[in-house]
Design goal:
By secondary structure, the protein is of the alpha/beta class. It has one domain: TIM Barrel. The protein is built from 12 helices and 10 strands. The chain has an 8-stranded parallel beta barrel, surrounded by 6 helices. A hairpin with a 2-residue loop joins strand 2 and strand 3. Helix 3 packs parallel to helix 4, helix 4 runs parallel beside helix 6 and helix 9 runs antiparallel to helix 10. The longest helix is centred in the last third of the chain and has 18 residues.
Length: 288
């Protein structure tokens, strides 16, 4: 099972004068396809989906899917779609809308804010996986949702035939290791600083916001470790570490957008309540 291996980039949404910059968005898709990444995540938290209305979300996704078909690769660049919320019935409807699209899967976080029981979480994800015709990737990120996916819950959900992987932001080495040893779910590092550890333990890859910058090096890191070249992988990771740390020194995706703007790929714009990286941080980023 290799559908969710490698380095995936959770694509930012570029803005220009307040509007979505679809031309820049297409340029980013081509950029990461050329860099050899495994796939893209559309409308993940890094893409500021909460700041996009429904029509913009659909247009962003359509643009990414269209450009992913045009990259010149032998097969289209896979695109996973983030689906978030805390109303199971509404999320089922969204997933049913996505079913006909040529997507690689859906990335779903636990219901945020309401903090359901673990039994409620199992029922929620099971209902969504039942509705999905595409593979489901669980997103365990308790510091955003207010509730964690306990290990027993993850192992229960792993029995569902359409739940294939987990984006692991649990912060628990015990959970990461147990999931890798269980082997039913592919484990993708969700905390960028944990990429090296997760891959060395046997994880399948990463969904890494900092891979927007120097994507070729992230791909080289994955290839080195997956091929057993530990010293090379360690050297690459240590070279990337200062940038990874600064990429999360302020709320994501502000630092990443500042770095991309410095490269001339996008404008440095976010939508409220998100704000641009501070001048002090931008100075440190530019020093890289």
């Amino acid at each position: 099972m290799s559908e969710f291996s490698g380095i995936w980039v959770p694509l930012i949404t570029p803005f220009a004068n307040g509007a979505v910059d679809y031309s820049a968005l297409r340029g980013l898709v081509r950029r990461y396809a050329d860099a050899g990444i495994a796939g893209l995540v559309a409308l993940g938290t890094t893409g500021e989906p909460a700041a996009l209305d429904a029509a913009e979300q659909d247009a962003v996704l359509a643009t990414i899917l269209d450009e992913a078909q045009r990259t010149g690769r032998t097969t289209p660049l896979p695109v996973m779609v983030g689906v978030s919320g805390n109303h199971t019935a509404s999320m089922r409807e969204r997933i049913e809308q996505l079913n006909p699209l040529p997507i690689a899967g859906v990335l779903i976080a636990a219901p945020y804010y309401i903090r359901p029981s673990q039994a409620g979480i199992v029922g929620h994800f099971s209902a969504l996986a039942d509705a999905s015709e595409k593979p489901v990737v669980l997103y365990d990120i308790p510091y955003r949702t207010g509730v964690r996916l306990e290990l027993d819950t993850l192992l229960t959900l792993a029995a569902h035939p359409r739940i294939r992987a987990v984006k692991d932001c649990s912060g628990s080495l015990d959970t990461t290791l147990a999931l890798i040893r269980d082997a039913r779910l592919q484990v993708l590092a969700g905390e960028d600083i944990a990429i090296f550890n997760t891959l060395c333990l046997g994880g399948s890859g990463a969904i890494a916001a900092s891979a927007h910058v120097r994507p070729e090096q992230f791909v080289a890191l994955y290839r080195a470790l997956s091929e057993g070249r530990l010293d090379e992988g360690r050297r690459i990771f240590h070279a990337l570490t200062p940038m990874i740390q600064l990429a999360f020194a302020e709320p994501n995706p502000a630092p990443v957008k500042a770095l991309l703007a410095a490269q001339g790929l996008i404008r440095d714009e976010l939508r409220m309540p998100m704000t641009r990286a501070s001048d002090a941080l931008i100075e440190r980023l530019n020093a890289l």
